[in-house]
Amino acid sequence: MPQNLVIVESPAKARTIEKFLGKGYKVLASYGHVRALPSKQGSVDTENDFEPKYAVLPESKKHLQELKKELKNSGTLLLATDPDREGEAISWHLLAALGIDTKKTSLDVKRVVFHEITKDAITHAIKHPRDISLDLVDAQQARSILDYLVGFNLSPFLWKKIRYGLSAGRVQSVALRLICEREKEIAAFVEQEYWTIAASLQKQGGQGFRANLVEFEGKKLGKFDIPDAATAESVKKDLLKEPCRVTRVTKSEKKRNPSPPFTTSTLQQEAARKLGFSAKKTMATAQKLYEGIDIGGEGAVGLITYMRTDSVNLSSQALKEANSVITSQFGEEYALAKPRHFKNKSKNAQEAHEAIRPTYLSKTPAELKKHLTPDQHKLYELIWKRTVASQMAEALLDQTSVDIAAGKGNTFRATGSVIRFPGFMKLYIEGKDDENEEKEGMLPPLEEGEDLTLLDILPEQHF
User: Fold this and answer.
1) Dihedral sign of CA atoms 115, 120, 122, 128 in order
2) Alpha helices per DSSP H over 240-364
3) CA distance 385 to 241
4) Which of these, 78, 112, 223, 420, is most buried using a 10 Å CB contact count?
5) Full set of structural domains in the chain with CATH
6) Are the C-beta atoms of residues 178 and 446 closer than 8 Å to each other?
7) CA 311 to mean position of chain CA atoms
8) What 3-state DSSP class applies to 253?
9) What Å distances lie between residue 155 and 7, 39, 162, 168, 172, CA to CA?
10) pLDDT tens digit string along 210-259?
């Protein structure tokens, strides 16, 4: 009986998927792209509607021979490359490199798309195949043609005029211009020294906080009113003698909503802020989590959804699972009566795609820690927390402004928030690295007339 041949990009992905499909299916890898535009003159025919002249990559010839061999025993070909423009183009190039004309072949050729490597997702994709999307293929071709036209033509020019080995590109040249323009602004900046003064204060027997000096000796301070270190030290000396008392407290209620689940760009940004990961390290680690991790008795399991996405959508099943996790781990008051839906910022966001999320929210970071490398665990925990927090109740805060008198005519001002109900903040706050940082900007409850302990006066130099 003819087999069903499934082609994906990577061997790791192939092993995970073959385990789910079982008998009757053979899953092989293309090892990425199999054809590309050669780096030589004429690869794009600019006189003939910019027609690309693709060639099989030398390193792909061996893999293509193996695929051709398996096709002889196959009745169905399932192209299961990634669900984006690059994946669509790989499927299209595979047909060309394997010499398959879908209009003439007796082979049943199908394109299957999934956004997570789980048994349910793979089974659903195979039951609902589609044709290759030529719109996505055209979009990828346009990108690669532009890369060729800009890079191939400009790089040799740079070698001649500046230095051999330099390169130009569709993206990098624009980024380089932005950096150069910013560098010119920095070079043209004229420094002017000024100082600010802050007080380190503490509620009696309670939390510490900082307040900035806004008035000194009855005069409202302007930006450059403390121009040098000598003046700053003189102000500090005078202020250290004075008792501190709260003179005014103004409050307003504020509701704070969680950030949406991760897209590719927001995951890279947050992993850099919180984990110190480069964009490359983040994507490589996410790729491993997506393709499958061996978690003991269950074997290799895809732990997150596809990590190249500009969508903030979550599936209905993920929303239900998030609500269940929140209720069981945090209580009913932290759960939502109705799911929270976020609007995609990108007008071109693909609505059928999902945000980056765990495939099973019930698999907590603590539960999986023993099966993951330290980097994998850190990134999975970040994704898990962000996803769960996106469906938690809003935080309720008292936005507070406090004036503190330090003797006569001297006023410090502190602004911040007092948490009335933490909501999602109990689990996750964007852009904060640890528990101590999460308290930054938070004030203890304060009342007018309350005496405070002055711990120190902190001058700070600026330019």
Assistant:
1) negative
2) 264-275, 279-291, 316-330
3) 47
4) 78
5) 3-140 (3.40.50.140), 194-257+394-462 (2.70.20.10), 264-389 (1.10.290.10)
6) no
7) 11
8) strand
9) 35, 11, 10, 5, 12
10) 999 999 999 999 999 999 999 999 999 999 999 999 999 999 999 999 99
Are the C-beta atoms of residues 313 and 353 closer than 8 Å to each other? yes
List, for residues 374-422, the tens digit of each pLDDT value. 999 999 999 999 999 999 999 999 899 999 999 999 999 999 888 889 9
Q: How far apart are the C-alpha atoms of 397 and 429, rounded to whole Å?
A: 14
How far apart CA 224 and CA 409 sit, in angstroms, is: 19
Other CB atoms within a 10 A radius of the CB of residue 87 amount to 21
With tokens 């999986």, the residue in question is 368
> Does residue 306 carry a catalytic annotation?
yes
C-beta atoms surrounding 23 within 10 Å: 5
User: Which of 29, 83, 117 is closest to 301 using CA atoms?
Assistant: 117
Contact 170, 146 (CB under 8 A): yes
Closest residue by Cα to residue 8 from 122, 144, 162, 138? 122
Exposed, middle or buried, 149 (CB in 10 Å: 0-12/13-18/19+)? middle
Which residues in the chain land under pLDDT 50?
433-440
Q: Is 32 left (phi over 0), alpha (psi -120 to 50) or beta?
A: left
Name 322's Cβ contacts closer than 8 Å, sequence gap at least 6: 314, 361, 387, 388, 390, 391
| Separation between Cα atoms, residue 13 and residue 301, nearest integer Å | 10
End-to-end, the C-alpha distance of the chain in Å comes to 77
CA-closest candidate to residue 361, choices 323, 392, 396: 323
Q: Which amino acid is at 31?
A: Y
- pLDDT, residue 432, reads 53
- The torsion defined by the Cα of 157, 159, 160 and 163, in degrees rounded to 10, comes to 140
Tokens, residue 350: 């693909």
Q: Among positive and negative, which fits the CA dihedral 290, 291, 297, 298?
A: positive
Q: Which two tokens stand for residue 122?
A: 């793979």
DSSP 61: H
pLDDT at 150: 92
